[in-house]
C-alpha cells in the first residue's frame, strides 16, 4: 500500500508590489493575468481537490462555473473552468443564502480544527482563497504554501494580501519572472 502524505493547504493570490490584492476602490482590474501567467496558475491549481472561499472571493470565482460556455474564451480560461468545476468548494459566509455552483457547500463559520481534519484526510491539496480567509488560515497555522504573483504596479492602498499583525517565517522554494513583469514567488511556511 503506497504511503500518502497529508494534503497541503495553499494560498494563491495576485498582489501589487506594495502588497494589495484590491485597490482602494475594491477593483482588481489592474491584475488580469497574461496568457503565460494564467497557464502557470492553471498548473498550480491542478492538484487542488477543494477550494475554500469567503463570500466575496466566491462571488468573484463563481464566474468559472460557466466560463467555458462564453464565446471567444482562450484555451487557458476553458482549462481553468474545468479545474474549478472538478474541485469541491466550501464557502464560509454568514450572509450568503445559497451557492450557485456544483460541488459547493455553504458553512457559516470557519473552523480551524475542521480544516486541520480535512487536511489530514484529504487525498488532494486544498486552496484557501481571499485575503480575509487566507489571513485567518495563516494566523491559525493552517497554510503550508504561499504562491504570490506580484504585478508590477504600486496601488498605495486597498485590501492587503497578508493580514496586519501576522508574523511567520517563510522559506523561498521557487521563483519565476514572466514576460510582462509579473514575478511568481513560492514560499513554504516554516513550522
How would you describe the overall organization of this protein?
The chain has 191 residues and is an alpha/beta fold. The protein contains five helices and ten strands, in the order E-E-H-E-H-H-E-E-H-E-H-E-E-E-E. It has helices spanning 35-45, 55-61, 75-86, 112-121, 131-139, and strands at 9-16, 20-22, 48-54, 88-92, 104-107, 125-129, 145-151, 159-160, 170-177, 183-189. Strands 5-4-3-6-1-7-10-9 form an eight-stranded mixed beta sheet, sandwiched between helices. Strand 9 and strand 10 form a beta hairpin. Helix 1 runs parallel beside helix 3 (75-86). It starts with 8 loop residues before the first strand and ends with a strand. The model has no long low-confidence stretch (mean pLDDT 94).
The helix count comes to 5
Biggest beta sheet attributes: 8 strands, mixed
Distance between the termini: 29 Å
What is the ordering of alpha helices and beta strands? EEHEHHEEHEHEEEE
Q: State Rg.
A: 16 Å
DSSP, total strands: 10
Give the neighbour order of strands across the main sheet: 5-4-3-6-1-7-10-9
- Summarize model confidence as the mean pLDDT: 94
Query: Which residues form runs of ≥5 with pLDDT under 50?
Result: none
Helix and strand composition category: alpha/beta
**Helical residues, percent:** 25-40%
Strand content: 25-35%
Overall shape: globular
Amino acid at each position: 500500500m503506497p504511503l500518502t502524505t497529508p494534503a497541503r493547504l495553499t494560498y494563491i493570490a495576485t498582489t501589487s508590489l506594495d502588497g494589495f490584492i484590491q485597490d482602494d476602490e475594491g477593483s482588481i482590474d489592474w491584475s488580469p493575468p497574461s496568457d503565460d501567467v494564467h497557464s502557470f496558475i492553471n498548473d498550480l491549481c491542478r492538484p487542488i481537490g477543494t477550494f475554500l472561499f469567503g463570500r466575496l472571493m466566491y462571488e468573484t470565482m463563481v464566474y468559472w462555473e460557466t466560463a467555458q460556455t462564453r464565446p471567444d474564451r482562450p484555451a487557458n480560461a476553458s482549462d481553468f473552468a474545468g479545474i474549478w468545476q472538478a474541485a469541491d468548494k466550501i464557502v464560509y459566509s454568514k450572509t450568503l443564502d445559497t451557492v450557485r455552483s456544483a460541488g459547493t457547500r455553504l458553512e457559516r463559520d470557519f473552523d480551524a480544527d475542521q480544516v486541520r481534519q480535512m487536511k489530514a484526510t484529504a487525498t488532494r491539496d486544498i486552496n484557501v482563497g481571499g485575503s480575509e480567509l487566507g489571513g485567518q488560515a495563516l494566523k491559525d497555522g493552517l497554510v503550508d504554501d504561499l504562491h504570490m504573483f506580484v504585478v508590477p504596479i504600486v496601488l498605495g492602498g486597498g485590501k492587503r494580501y497578508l493580514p496586519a499583525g501576522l508574523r511567520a517565517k517563510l522559506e523561498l522554494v521557487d521563483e519565476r519572472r514572466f514576460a510582462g513583469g509579473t514575478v511568481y514567488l513560492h514560499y513554504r511556511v516554516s513550522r
